Amino acid sequence: MAPDNPMTTPGIIWRSDDLTTPIEGWRGTLEIRAGSAVDSTTGPLAELARLRAENERLKADAARYEWLRRQHWSDASMCVVMKPRSAVRLGHDCPAVDRLDAAIDAAMAQGDKA
């Protein structure tokens, strides 16, 4: 909900839980809960789109982590290994970073043990 007197100098600062509402003739900065500010050149809707995209990426990472931590070495196609230099032998596949994300996404899509 907008405050009773949203006018400030040099522009409008509107605090809202609903950042999807366009503000006609908007100028200045929009204060966001995390404390970052939206530059008037990008606008609040562009910042909202950026935050939504970031949220989707973070949700995908969280889902991968949750899936991976439920895997057990005895019956899963993939699991976490402690001390890999002594536990993993030549010829084993140890994907990391983007390859690991892709491998987890493929296993999740195939419905591997979750």
List the topology elements.
Elements: E1 30-31, E2 37-38, H1 43-69, H2 84-87, H3 97-109
Antiparallel strand pairs: 1-2
Structural summary, described in words:
The longest helix has 27 residues, at 43-69. This protein is mostly helical and 114 residues long. Strand 1 (30-31) and strand 2 (37-38) form a beta hairpin. The model is unreliable at 5-14 (pLDDT under 50). The two termini are 41 Å apart. The chain is built from 3 helices and 2 strands; from the N terminus they run ββααα. A two-stranded antiparallel ribbon has the order 1-2. The chain has 2 domains: 1-63, no CATH class; 70-114, no CATH class.
Task: Give a nutshell description of this structure.
With 114 residues, the protein is mostly helical. It contains three helices and two strands; from the N terminus they run E-E-H-H-H. The chain has a two-stranded antiparallel ribbon.
Number of strands: 2
Tell me the series of helices and strands, N- to C-terminal: EEHHH
Strand coverage percent:
under 5%
The N- to C-terminal Cα distance equals 41 Å
Query: What is the share of helical residues?
Result: 25-40%
Shape: elongated
Category from helices, strands and their pairing = mainly alpha
Unreliable stretches, pLDDT < 50, 5 or more residues?
Answer: 5-14
Q: Spatial order of the strands in the main sheet?
A: 1-2
- Round the mean pLDDT to the nearest integer and report it: 75
Continuous helix count: 3
The largest pleated sheet is described as: 2 strands, antiparallel
- Rg from alpha-carbon coordinates: 23 Å
Number of domains: 2
Q: Quaternary state, please?
A: single chain
